[in-house]
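Dear colleagues,

As part of the handover before I leave the project, I'm documenting each prediction I ran so the next person doesn't have to rerun anything. This entry is a single chain, and its sequence is reproduced below.
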Amino acid sequence: MIHSNNIYETKRKVRKLKTVEKKIRFGNETRIGVSLVWDSFFNLHDSSVSTARYTLSILALMNREDYKRVVDEYFANVYYEYYKENGIVHTATYDPSILAQLELPFNAEIHDIKKRFRELAMIYHPDKGGDPARFIDLDSVDTGQSA
């Protein structure tokens, strides 16, 4: 069972992440109708309807290292959105949705991306007995680098 102090402390920390995201992305400006990365990562109500990756109870049960990994991934996504919104192109920044499609962590290096792309291409290639639809989806992935 989760101790109520742990739930309260976790909720406080996660809400603070939302505030930090707003400051990073919008400064002191108020933006209405703009979706936050926070909304896709966290759900403090533990409802099963949410599409968020982490509920409050899951976060409260995490050890320090796992929680740090979640926060690091979250901020990688926040900064990716910031860069995208501000037209900042950085060669070391990869689209988190592409990395997820390739089943790679947020901090994957280019050699990891190329290697995983080739592995999946071999698995899904129709000539190798793979799923043509998955291969087409994979082929549409633009890593921003030539293989």
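Residues 4-85 form one domain. The longest helix spans residues 4-26.

All the best with the project,
I.
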